[in-house]
Amino acid sequence: MIRSCTEIHPFPGRRPFAGIPPLALATILILSAACASRAPYTKETFVMGTKAWVTIAGMSDRDAERAAQAAFREMYRIESVMSTWRPASEISRLNTGSNGAPFTVSSELCSLIDSSLFYSKATSGAFDVTVRPLVRLWGFQGGEAKLPSDSEIERAMSLVGFGKIVLDPSRSTITLPPGMQIDLAGIAKGYAVDRCAAALAGLGVRSALVNIGGNIYAMGAPPGEKGWSIGIRDPKGGLETVGTLTLRDEAVATSGNYENFVEIEGRRYGHVIDPRAGRPISSVLSVTVVAPTGLASDALSTGLFVLGPDDAREVVKRLAGVAALFALADTDGIVYRPVGDIERRLNLKKAR
């Protein structure tokens, strides 16, 4: 067990780099001494309901600007396809159009839903793109924050279950039972990070960070460095960094309940819901997942959070390149439990 630190943190920007989110800021500050000849180029936008940015090292500002804009265009495109907040998006049309019948979708959306089903099976249903009725029932995504009754939970769960999705890749069709909807919020940002990284690589970028709401892909390494150094923090909140996570050609994502929660009858409930039980998870504070792709780290950060460290260990053993760090509440404060080969990437300060 590790008793010090953890958690990817998008904290506020700084001067003179106004508007740059915290992970990019941490990277710039860490690299400033080694890369004084040319500071990394960073550009920020707002997409998928969150801040996003691209940091590029080793290129002229002109070339980096061109590459960053290409990445942003890919972010906006994916949002237009996969946002349930847009009535005209492809995922919204699927949700309203299937109603028990096969609905033809693009090969891209079909492939992403197929990937989501893979991670649902890999986590024994702990990750599930049909969980939205339960999320709203507990007061998230526009729902009313109140303690639901057992019967309300049971009714919501009747519309939840990845096994009810019928996917036909040969015809590129998806069939959803009447009333069921798919919400890709737990996987789309990670997928977008991967697509943006591919767009950057196509324009000759070899060293970059792509971050969409804390879903990060680290391409290569800044000049003279082993990898991108990313600030990590205590999952109970605050802005102080407690260590770094060094990544190279890997993705990372974190799920945690320390910021997104509701209070009902004096008790705090986090936004991560167990699709199998219909209730929020309270035993885990956060989990940070490193994986070969943003899609994998995004889906698994939710799925492993729901499973907890013991069951997560069996999942990680079966998936190449995946590792995780759990933060658990303890009588002495917080206990950190590594799962897989995460420790070689961590540089932690001494326990406080």
Properties at a glance:
alpha+beta; globular; 8-stranded antiparallel sheet
Short description:
This protein is an alpha+beta fold.
Question: Can you offer a commentary on this structure?
Answer:
- A hairpin with a 4-residue loop joins strand 4 (about 165-170) and strand 5.
- It contains nine helices and 18 strands.
- The strands form five sheets. Strands 1-2-6-7-10-15-16-17 form an eight-stranded antiparallel β-sheet. A three-stranded antiparallel β-sheet has the order 3-5-4, with helices on one face. It has a three-stranded antiparallel β-sheet with strand order 8-9-18.
- Helix content is about 30%, strand content about 25%.
- With about 350 residues, it is α+β, with helices and mostly antiparallel strands.
